[in-house]
Design a protein that fits this description.
Layout lengths: L3 E4 L2 E4 H23 L8 H20 L1
Antiparallel strand pairs: 1-2
């Protein structure tokens, strides 16, 4: 979906709505990885977190289009 979404009369890009939806999903995945102990195998946590966020954002955008 390309376009805009109206939030309380304010038009925002659709990708911003998707990006806001990807944040809690990424947070839950990070917590799951930390609890299971898989997060300690990550060499650069900040880089991994950014890549995980982008993968979640891509998955959400593909699911909604």
């Amino acid at each position: 979906m390309i376009g805009e979404a109206s939030l309380l009369g304010l038009y925002v890009p659709w990708v911003m709505v998707l990006a806001l939806c990807a944040l809690p999903v990424t947070w839950l995945l990070r917590r799951l990885l930390a609890v299971t102990g898989l997060y300690r195998w990550v060499w650069r946590p900040a880089l991994f977190d950014m890549a995980l966020y982008l993968l979640v954002l891509f998955a959400i955008s593909r699911a909604t289009s």
